[in-house]
Amino acid sequence: MKILVIGSGGREHALVWKIAQSPLVTKVYCAPGNPGIGRIAENVEIKVDDLPALLGFAKREGIDLTVVGPELPLSLGIVDLFEEYGLRIFGARRNAALIEASKAFSKDLMKKYGIPTAAYEVFTEVEPAVAFIDRVGAPIVVKADGLAAGKGVIIAATRDEAVAAVTEMLAGNAFGAAGSRVVIEEFLTGEEASFLAFTDGKNIIPLASAQDHKAVFDGDRGPNTGGMGAYSPAPVVTSAIHEKAMAEVLRRTVDGMAAEGRPYRGVLYAGLMIDGDSVKTLEFNARFGDPECQPLLMRMKSDIVPVLLAVAEGDLSGVEIEWHDKAAVCVVLASEGYPGDYRKGDEIFGLEEAARIEELFVFHAGTAATDGRIVTSGGRVLGVTALGDTVQDAIDRAYRGVAAISWEGVHYRRDIGRKALGR
Ligand code: AMP
Ligand code: GLY
User: Fold this and answer.
1) Within its chain, how far is the Cα of 78 from the centroid?
2) DSSP letters of 146-162?
3) Which of 78, 221, 260, 296 is the most exposed place for a label (fewest CB within 10 A)?
């Protein structure tokens, strides 16, 4: 079977790595891929938003299954397009991917179907938004409605910060169309977890639990990023919390989407805030989380390809997923300055040495190859991901890999996984 993966980050490297291990697979392509992916698959120079070129490639090469990594092609309707031409594809259709592409849509869905979430209101004008902020008070959370590459959420500690964020989003144009509507919501406290599940629109198969580290600095300080590291399993997701999330969040969402005429097929990612026995939904994503995907796929014992095929064909009944008992930890190595402006083009050293460590894999995200050298080319550059018998073992192993790798201006958190140890 020939498989095409779309995307170029650590998530897609992990997907390609896992898919390539399947005995069902003869060839894996990745568009556009990255130098790490290029070692185990064939990179194809097509951008993730060039839908006609991706379709043409899949038809020409006789691709049996296309797997979509990032949200952009989903929200552009790649799944609808491929299905129109009778091609098998894993991912949410455009009208279902709206669950990530519009925060106002997903909040309204949550309200309508009783999915627990922070109290909120949606605004298109500055004046009523400010009145709302004055009524609720700070801290308060301001979110641009549309896709903003992880930068559209402002946790405002003061009223003035919230007013500034709303004004910038609605009156300025820093967020383009994504900021023409804002969601303003209650600030929640607790510990976050990433709850992912495969669904065919009816059946739901949860993945193992995971936790991301969004803030750029140790101790969850500094601005939020796409994720500076992740681990699985996440002890904060006890079996009681798991049951509650399945019943109150995943089940209601999948059923609600079906009732709305937007059947959800693919992987559904719920960002949860857990506080004692309370579970609230922060957001939905229509894709695998990155970096969560890296530790999750390292822990997945079953072949992923039959699962992806079953979702693409719309029937997950009878499918089961086995997980390794081991823990997995991913430490993201980023470029200095990320998530703001960052340097690019620095040569990366020590990749071979890290590769010699057992049960450790270095997934590439923002790398490029120039005259035989691997250099940095993005904010998040590598995901050093390791297994261990315990979380502590996995942490130790991952940081051994991190210690082997260097470049000028490398930045990473030193406390990935520490929260899991506290439990
Ligand atoms: P989102 O993209 O909506 O998940 O927001 C990004 C991040 O902002 C989340 O992972 C949380 O860390 C934080 N966040 C979002 N909404 C809230 C909220 N209502 N209360 C506290 N933190 C939040
Ligand atoms: N790591 C968070 C995300 O993928 O959205």
Assistant:
1) 18
2) S--TT--EEEESSHHHH
3) 221
320-335 tens-digit pLDDT: 999 999 999 999 999 9
The finding on whether 212 has its CB within 6 A of some atom of ligand 2 is yes
Q: Ligand 2 center to residue 147 CA distance, Å?
A: 13
Residue 53 CA to ligand 1 centre (angstroms) = 35
pLDDT in tens, 36-68: 999 999 999 999 999 999 999 999 999 999 999
Pick the CATH number of 2-94 from 3.40.50.20, 3.40.1280.10, 2.60.40.770, 3.40.470.10: 3.40.50.20
pLDDT in tens, 336-352: 999 999 999 999 999 99
Question: Out of 3.30.559.10, 3.90.600.10, 3.30.450.20, 3.30.1330.60, which CATH number does the structure's domain 327-421 have?
Answer: 3.90.600.10
Q: How far apart are CA 226 and CA 171, in angstroms?
A: 26
Alpha helix positions (H), 118-174: 126-136, 159-170
Atom 3 of ligand 2, residue of closest alpha carbon: 289
* Pairing of β 89-90 and β 65-68: parallel
Q: What distances in angstroms separate CA 211 from CA 222, 235, 320, 394, 419, one per listed residue?
A: 18, 9, 22, 14, 9
Architecture of domain 125-180: 2-Layer Sandwich (3.30)
Dist. CA 104 → ligand 1 center (Å): 14
